[in-house]
Design goal:
The complex is a heterodimer of chains A (about 170) and B (about 80).
Chain A (H helix, E strand, L loop, with lengths): L2 H10 L2 H5 L3 H28 L3 H28 L13 H33 L14 H23 L9
Helix pairs in contact in A: 3-4, 3-6, 4-6, 5-6
Chain B lengths: L6 E2 L1 H8 L3 H8 L3 H8 L7 H11 L3 H4 E2 L9
Antiparallel strand pairs in B: 1-2
Classes of the chains: A mainly alpha (about 170), B mainly alpha (about 80).
């Protein structure tokens, strides 16, 4: 049994898979994950407005910590709830799961394009505030921005897949 | 294309032969929930999977799948 087979086994047997199997339950988890993600984005606003300062650092780190504490378990449960459709390598998925995965990636691509497009518009509006192109970006913003974009890029397909998935059939009727 | 429905007799064939969903899934190499989705008509299989299902039950593919609802037994 290789590493991925063990991971699949573990994922299939996670109690979370049953606990979050129904659509309403899974969608509640997605809402928590979106809130955790929004907290990361809100943290960027705090840095942009108040950095460099102790206040900005402390508030951002608190927001990051809460987001991490909520987001990490929720991501695991969502992977279990979607039966690893976005976690497992393709060789472990059947044709229905692969179609589900492709649908999720397509919708997520659209969603992240919207996020990046909005970021572009906001960045331009911010740049032209006051009619001048000169503005100061705190260097402290760079790493959290990269992290937030990465987390958004990584989690959006999972959130979409979990949101779209229908109620699974009973184990054996 | 979402209203394309493929009807199937998988639950009937499975019950008739006393095969569990998990056994059928293992024989076909698919996730057991995929069999459930097929039975509920929420997923239409590829031609390859449809042929494999028919081959597993040793019946022609049109015995398992149809574009029209199957007639009820005795009707």
């Amino acid at each position: 049994m290789d590493t991925w087979e063990k991971r699949r086994e573990r994922l299939e047997n996670m109690p979370a898979g049953r606990l979050w199997a129904t659509r309403p339950a899974r969608r509640r988890l997605v809402a928590v994950a979106v809130a955790a993600l929004m907290l990361l984005w809100a943290g960027l606003v705090v840095i942009a407005r108040y950095a460099p300062s102790d206040l900005a650092r402390n508030v951002y780190l608190s927001m990051f910590g809460i987001s991490l504490l909520a987001g990490l378990p929720v991501t695991g449960w969502l992977h279990a709830g979607t039966r690893g459709v976005l976690y497992l390598p393709e060789r472990f998925l059947d044709e229905r799961q692969l179609a589900e995965r492709r649908r999720a990636f397509t919708s997520a691509h659209r969603a992240t394009s919207l996020v990046l497009g909005s970021l572009l518009v906001l960045a331009n509006l911010w740049s032209f505030e006051g009619g001048r192109l000169t503005f100061t970006v705190p260097v402290a913003l760079l790493a959290p921005l990269a992290l937030t974009l990465f987390v958004t890029h990584y989690t959006t397909p999972l959130l979409v897949a979990a949101w779209q998935a229908t109620d699974p059939p009973d184990d054996d009727e | 294309m979402s209203n394309e429905v493929v009807y199937n007799r998988i639950p009937m064939l499975r019950a008739e032969r006393g095969i569990s969903r998990k056994d059928l899934a293992a024989a076909l190499g698919v996730h057991y929930q995929t069999v459930g989705y097929l039975e509920r008509g929420e997923y239409s299989p590829s031609l390859f999977l449809a042929l494999r299902i028919a081959e597993y039950f040793e019946v022609p593919v049109e015995v398992v799948f149809s574009l029209r609802p199957f007639a009820r037994l005795g009707s």
